[in-house]
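Example 3.2
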Amino acid sequence: MTLFQGDNGAGKSNLLEAMYLLAVARSPRASNDRELVRRINHKGEFYAQVAGKIERQQDSVDLQINFRTMNTPNPATGGVGMSAQKYFRVNGASRRASTLIGHLNAMMFSADDLEIVYGAPSVRRRYLNILISQTDRAYLSTIQRYERVVRQRNHLLRQIRDGAGRVGELSFWDDELVKEGSEIVSQRLTTVRTLSEGASPIYSDLSDGGESLTIAYKPNVSLPNDMSGEGIAEALREKLAERKGRELARGITVTGPHRDDLALTLDGMEASAFASRGQARTAVLALKLAEGSYLREKRGQEPVILLDDVLSELDAARREQVIGHASQYHQTLITTADADSIFRQLPPNTTRFRVKGGRIQALDI
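Structure, written as tokens:
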């Protein structure tokens, strides 16, 4: 276990963000890559690099992500905008993002993760997609194909609505949506079932057994008792036919896993509507700790646990429970601005670093 301590704004969260970036090829905080590159002024090109050596049970691997941002003309406004490019390397060789993902398994918790409870369904879908992609690169490819299908189908729907396309052309894109969408739903159902089974007892520990947590996948189609790929595909196909008129009128696809959601309930009540911030934090912590177990089981290797300023807002009992669960992993990295209240509860072999002004210094114990 490693503790990074320092004042707010010192760079602790940036450090964990960089580590997680190497795991999933995208930032858990920034909405676009332009935000990741510090710019000294508003002219020219700007560069950044995140790199690390990952030591695994069987080998080691060097991961690297290079960023470049540049000013580009914006025809819409007549001004100048900022574009970003991202390049990946694995052991020095140029690779795609899908090849980088999975070399480093990591679970990260930060205050932003409360959006899993309170945020829009898209936040929860993104969470599921990132998690499953760490364990199954084929899933990432399926998601990418599915998103292309939805874009093409939406374009055709608008053309038909405007009299520039034929309804019969939808058949091909319906088949593609059913094919890719049923695979996504099937994978998500299996994953959420595993997460719920793992998170429920953890939440019970963290809340002293006062409440029960349930996590369920909420597809926007009614699924049959037959949860096979064929059964899911048939349910999607029937719903597409049923909603075709509505989709043609609106010019968008309203059926499929891009409209699904994840429900967290406490004693049967929707956490998004009824949970306090303390309850929401505990629920997400339980979910994230279950995520660590999921990664370990699916990948057959230990995930790195990244806890960004989590412990200081917990009472002593819950803090001890979280530390106990986190101690089950080979490597846990924790940040805090309140080291004195936390360090006494950490294992005796915990390593401490001070972060100040973006620099890291080892502390002698």
